[in-house]
Write a structure and sequence with these properties.
The chain is of the alpha/beta class. The chain is built from 14 helices and 25 strands. Helices cover about 25% and strands about 20% of the residues. Strand 1, helix 2 and strand 2 form a beta-alpha-beta unit. The longest helix has 16 residues. The two termini are about 30 Å apart.
């Protein structure tokens, strides 16, 4: 497998507890192969937390020469949409993984229904008429056992009849449910007669109006795994308490070679939301510009911002696989992105807040072609040329009339070097009616080309620049983290999304100056703007308007 930058992926992964379990299973002959699956619910877009599960599921199958399927858990039709299905498939492929097959939980609805009938026939399931509130009350607490429903021991034939009538649509939603008969006194609340089917008169995006009852996730999941031939069901740690129920269903239904569930700690990254429900709230409340807003922790948002897929995989690899709860510093992800772009992104010059500079003694019709390296990490690549002319743009911050101490940029007292070109000195300046500096006039030393002078003098300041005659305007979006607190949440009693939003998460700068190499770049192309950071061409770009996203700044804030 190769990533989007055609860098071969290392197949051999370091050992972890998941591999240890699988090694033991293979050694003892429990399984003679390895098959995994990635089973997202198509009710939202995938986020950075899903990237860990994707990498674990697919790389585990790859390590053992097995297969990994994509299975969409579409058991809740009121929240699911084909839009999300398409996005999930795109995100997985973008990350660099290829699933063997695409399945849906709905592919197995007939089989799952037959399993429910089998439980009824075994006396292990019953139709309950308690209200949802009564079911919660009867369930008990962590310290008190539950109590049995008065309908728990109704005759099998009666349960079969009621379940058939539920399926035929005779009952309203919330009136009857089918429950597994396990143990209302179990210390594990998941084992206290869980609901396995409920009435839901909803249109399904694949089965249409065929069903009026739908299986619960805890029932559909192990049976889908079994029907599909999964050997190792890898999931996040919140399902650890559900594993006894997972195994109970498989044992009660006499499943041959049942899958083994193994849990790992989910990925928690500070300053982000990794809940599809909460991400949907951000979108619906208009707090972000859609699921692919580059400030979002969604994979499509990160892709649009310019994050390389290989950097996200490297991030997951650095975190490793464990069962311990932890919160990862977002700066580590940025560090992985920066490392990847440093190796692969071509260098160019761009001026975000332009200030015009006129070199008074430079000939009007003279054009010097300045050679600029594409990437110092790839010396084999040919250099590209940048035109140098009489009128240029530099950054506004690179000139001051009255600079503070240790200011090494352009000012009346200091000579500076223009990247790859000449030394220049301040001569004069022009202002508008409000006193703002609009043009700086300078002189240049014709013998200083390339930074070498006959007298050997050196300067401390080197500025990037753009020729006014060979540039184009662009809109640049400077992104920062979306939240200003480490653990943003909309839970009652904490604070609202609005309170936690970073008001400086997006700064839009118009009339930036970029070179013609940017003008014709494809959407998604990435560059390092010298002294600025890493940037990508956004999909909002049109023929008359280039839109550029800052991916990440040059400075690495991650504490190694």
């Amino acid at each position: 497998m190769e990533n989007e930058n055609n860098i071969p992926e290392v197949v051999e992964k370091p050992s972890n507890f998941i591999y240890d379990f699988i090694d033991k299973d293979l050694e003892e002959g429990v399984y003679d192969r390895v098959q995994t699956r990635f089973p997202p619910e198509p009710n939202g877009y995938l986020h950075i937390g899903h990237a860990k599960a994707i990498c674990i599921d697919f790389s585990t199958a790859e390590k053992y020469g097995g297969i990994c399927n994509l299975r969409l858990d579409d058991t809740n039709p009121t929240k699911e949409d084909t839009e999300y299905v398409d996005a999930i498939e795109e995100d997985i492929k973008w990350l660099g993984f290829n699933y063997a097959n695409v399945y849906y939980a709905s592919d197995y609805f007939d089989y799952i229904y037959e399993c429910a009938l089998a439980l009824i026939d075994k006396g292990l399931a019953y139709v309950d008429e308690l209200t949802p509130e009564q079911i919660r009350e009867y369930r008990g607490t962590l310290t008190e056992p539950g109590k049995e429903s008065p309908f728990r021991n109704r005759p099998i034939e009666e349960t079969k009849d009621l379940f058939a009538r539920m399926t035929a649509g005779e009952f309203d939603e919330g009136t009857l449910v089918l429950r597994a008969k396990i143990d209302m006194a179990s210390p594990n609340l998941n084992m206290r007669d869980p609901i396995i089917y409920r009435v839901m008169k909803a249109y399904h995006h694949r089965t249409k109006d065929k069903w009026c009852v739908y299986p619960m996730y805890d029932f559909a999941h192990p049976l889908s795994d079994a029907k599909e031939g999964v050997t190792h069901s890898l999931c996040s740690l919140e399902f650890e308490n559900h594993r006894p129920l997972y195994n109970w269903f498989l044992n009660a239904l006499d499943i041959k070679m049942p899958p083994r569930q193994i849990e790992f700690a989910r990925m928690n990254v500070n300053y982000t939301l990794t809940s599809k429900r909460k991400c949907l709230k951000l979108v619906n409340d208009g707090l972000v510009n859609g699921w692919d807003d580059p400030r979002m922790a969604t994979l499509c948002g990160m892709r649009r911002r310019g994050y390389p897929a290989s950097a996200i995989r490297a991030f997951v690899e650095k975190i490793g696989v464990s069962k311990a709860y932890s919160v990862i510093d977002y700066a580590l992800l940025e560090s992985c992105v920066r490392d990847e772009l440093n190796i692969n992104a071509p260098r160019t010059m761009a001026v975000l807040r332009p200030l015009k500079v006129v070199i008074d003694n430079y000939p009007e019709d003279k054009v010097d072609n300045i050679e600029v390296e594409v990437n110092p990490n790839k010396p084999e690549l040919a250099k590209h040329t940048v035109p140098f002319t009489k009128t240029l743009y530099i950054e506004q911050d690179d000139f001051m009339l009255e600079p503070p101490g240790k200011y090494f940029r352009l000012c009346p007292e200091k000579e500076v070097r223009l990247k790859g070109a000449y030394y220049i000195k301040y001569a004069s300046h022009e202002t508008d009616k409000d006193g703002n500096i609009t043009v700086v006039h300078c002189t240049y030393d014709p013998e200083s080309f390339g930074g070498e002078t006959p007298d050997g003098r050196k300067v401390k300041g080197t500025l990037h620049w753009i020729s006014a005659d060979y540039c184009t305007d662009a809109t640049v979006r400077l992104y920062d983290r979306l939240f200003n607190v480490e653990n943003p949440s909309d839970e009652e009693g904490v604070s609202s999304f609005a309170d936690n939003l970073n008001p400086n998460s997006l700064e839009v700068i118009n009339n930036c100056k970029v070179g013609n190499d940017i003008k014709n770049a494809e959407i998604g192309s990435r560059f390092q703007f010298m002294r600025q950071g890493y940037f990508a061409i956004d999909k909002d770009t049109t023929k008359g308007n280039i839109v550029i996203n800052r991916i990440v700044a040059l400075k690495d804030s991650f504490k190694k």
